[in-house]
Amino acid sequence: MKGRKNTEATLAGYSDNELMKLVAEADQKAFTQLYNRWAGRIRFFFLRLYSFDADMANDRTQDTFLRLLENAAGFDLNQRFSPWLYAIANNLYKNDLRRRELETVFRESKQNSIPSEMPNTERCIDLKYSEAFVDKMLNTLDPEVKAIFILRHAEELSIPEIAHATGCAEGTVKSRLFYAMKKLSQNLQTHHISEWI
């Protein structure tokens, strides 16, 4: 760094952790660089979780980066940035799920707002090629299983990183991934596309 003059060009070469150190020191340009680097991925994560509700995804993306700002001083520079950021996003999602459950109980509704039946598996569907089909299947997963699956296969986080982001034990993460893949395989056969496997 030359003095304290951070330009977009110099910040572009900084790692996420280096930028977080600057964000903790109230560097707006460093925050803008992190936002530009990660907002699209976080928004897409929320789009998948909220069944492509753009308003909800946009709101939660903004909330994620507000939390990033609020907690920047507490970020451990020895850890990877992406699992920390996805933990913030996933916690916002879980808060929404809890709120939704409370509203459901309050209204005494017995109908579950999120169906749980179908998942996705890495061997049979290319996520980029068959997004509409995959999203349809993901939307029928239990919300926590869906979040873990997206973190693993769309965001490519490791099992330990997912455990950190979701607050689940690594064994729980593995079992939920196994459950999702098993259920998708069954549903693929049901939908007469088992030849893709």
Q: Give average pLDDT, whole number.
A: 81
What is the percent of helical residues? Answer: 55-70%
Determine and state the CATH class of the largest domain: Mainly Alpha
Report the uncertain regions: 108-129, 192-197
CATH-wise, what's the superfamily of the largest domain? RNA polymerase sigma factor, region 2, helix turn helix motif
Largest sheet: none
**Share of β-strand residues:** under 5%
Summed up:
With 197 residues, this protein is an all-alpha fold.
Key attributes of the depicted protein:
single chain; 197 residues; mainly alpha; Rna Polymerase Sigma Factor, Chain: A; Arc Repressor Mutant, subunit A; 2 domains; 9 helices; 65% helix; elongated; disordered C terminus
Topology record:
Elements: H1 8-12, H2 16-24, H3 28-49, H4 54-71, H5 81-106, H6 131-138, H7 143-153, H8 159-166, H9 170-190
Explain this structure to me?
The chain has 197 residues and is an all-alpha fold. It has two domains: 7-113, RNA polymerase sigma factor, region 2, helix turn helix motif (Rna Polymerase Sigma Factor, Chain: A), CATH 1.10.1740.10; 115-197, Orthogonal Bundle (Arc Repressor Mutant, subunit A), CATH 1.10.10.10. The protein is built from nine helices and no strands. The protein has helices at residues 8-12, 16-24, 28-49, 54-71, 81-106, 131-138, 143-153, 159-166, 170-190.
